[in-house]
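Researcher: Next sequence.
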Amino acid sequence: MGAGLYVIFLLVSFGASVVGAICGIGGGVLIKPLLDAFGVLSVASISFLSGCTVLSMSCYSVLKTRTSGESLVDGRTGTPLAVGAAIGGVVGKMMFQYLSNLSPDKEQVGAIQAACLLVITFGTMLYTLKKDRIKTHQVTNLTACILIGLVLGICSSFLGIGGGPINLVVLFFFFSMDTKTAAQNSLYIILFSQITSLINTLVTRTVPEFGFGLLVLMVGGGILGGVAGRSINKKIDGDTVNKLFIGLMLLIMLICVYNMIRLM
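Model: Next structure:
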């Protein structure tokens, strides 16, 4: 990889983490498809690097809101969701590894990921546009919270996106959260799912090949993006966050279509 690509990887990880911290989607939902589109690393390598970047950003954001007393995470629902997501993170990583081993063409796994992300993002956008007319719920049952978190963890880990738009829709619909509360809870869930996904990768010794310098660069970009995104989030209202979120989903869908065509 040339120096120019290193700069691109840094800018992508930083920019995606800024948006991810603002909207609560982790940033991986942008990092993964964008870097896949360049085709310079394997699908597995980009999934791993994306997950590590999202982990660094969400770790900073969650710890900072906790220590500053600005946390909007309700432990009665947020923690069971995070526990479920932690388990789902392992399951999702196992699913990805199984599918990768099963497929003779490793790049086809990337096409499957892109197709799944396209469907999820399209459904999320439709819900977001019509959410004012959709009745929401207030789930408090412990088992239900864990199961919902489990599904979120599987999706985020399998797709290598950290959490993505689906987290916010689930938090809107099942827990009647406003945009900023959902954003914080989403990052909390993402943190747990990415920690267990990383641990599982290390324990099973399925870490893909990549340059260590690239990992440091992207993790640094993720942390800096978390700092900038958190600062911006405090200065804008929920309506602005919603508009940014919808624009982001349109961009993600376009990238997914491109990746499906390129990788199939």
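Model: The chain has a mean pLDDT of 88. The chain has one domain: 3-263.
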